[in-house]
Design a protein that fits this description.
This is NAD(P)H-quinone oxidoreductase subunit M. Helix content is about 30%, strand content about 20%. With about 120 residues, the chain is of the alpha+beta class. The protein has one domain.
């Protein structure tokens, strides 16, 4: 079994993809963002996640390739995705097969509540 980190929206594997299969690797990480398509993504938001991933991997260079270290990166990326959602850079995909609002209920403004809950 290869080293991996799986969160709700981020999956990281110490593996490469060959013929649509994951093949264990000691020098390659594969990132799967939002595998259940819970969010609507544009290319800019995805690139932000990829850049953050690269930054976190670079910061961890020289450390052991372990489940623990990958989970730290995965957890940091999960929080990053939450920030993208809270900042309105991504949104829930209401046509997704998964509608559990795992990062909080969607914010819907109405004339009665507009601006009432700003912190």
């Amino acid at each position: 079994m290869f080293v991996k980190s799986t969160t709700r929206h981020i999956r990281i594997y110490a593996a490469e993809v060959h013929n649509s299969e994951l093949v264990e690797s000691d020098n390659m990480l594969t990132l799967d963002v939002d595998p259940d398509n819970e969010f609507n993504w544009d290319e800019d938001a995805l690139q932000k996640v990829y850049r953050k991933f690269d930054e976190l991997v670079e910061a961890a260079s020289g450390e052991e390739l372990s489940d623990y270290n990958l989970r730290r990166i995965g957890s940091d990326l999960e929080h990053f995705v939450r920030n993208l959602l809270q900042n309105g850079e991504i949104s829930y995909n209401l046509k997704s097969r998964v509608l559990n609002y795992s990062m909080g209920l969607p914010k819907v403004e109405s004339p009665e509540t507009e601006g009432a809950y700003n912190l």
